[in-house]
Amino acid sequence: SIGPAQAAETIRTGLAMGADRGILVKVDGVVEPLAVAKLLKKVVEQEAPGLVILGKQAIDDDCNQTGQMLAALLGWGQGTFASKVELSADSVDVTREVDGGLQTVSLKLPAIVTTDLRLNEPRYASLPNIIKAKKKPLDETSAEALGVDVSPRLKVLKTAEPAGRSAGVKVASAAELVSKLKTAGVI
Description:
The chain is 29% helix and 26% strand.
């Protein structure tokens, strides 16, 4: 995880659900998707995994950018919105939902996969596993130690509600509808 010290508890939950170890990159404040991708790139370079699995989008900013940015920074193939993942020795097949149905892409490893909520049903953390999770390794580092500048590059200038919609108009016939559409310049 990337965030404040309290994020260690979230990692401990993952350890209780079956992960072997966790890594926390301590960062205070808001971290934009590009900075997250740069931090993950440094962790990936240190850990050398064959497959990196990320969520589809973050719950804080809802951006859906980090996985794609990480793939670009690493020069790896990517499969997004995965609803099914099949791993083989040197490739991974990712099935994803698209407007017309399902699409399957095959990626050479190493690769980046972002998940859809249909990929799996997480297991519950049992009490014995919660206790064991407290003894599993949790490495901590910082953005500074990884050499990544996480200062914000975006500035919100203004946030405003959209204008209210005006009331619709009922028409008596199709001819009247066509006439009003022509007057409005729609057709």
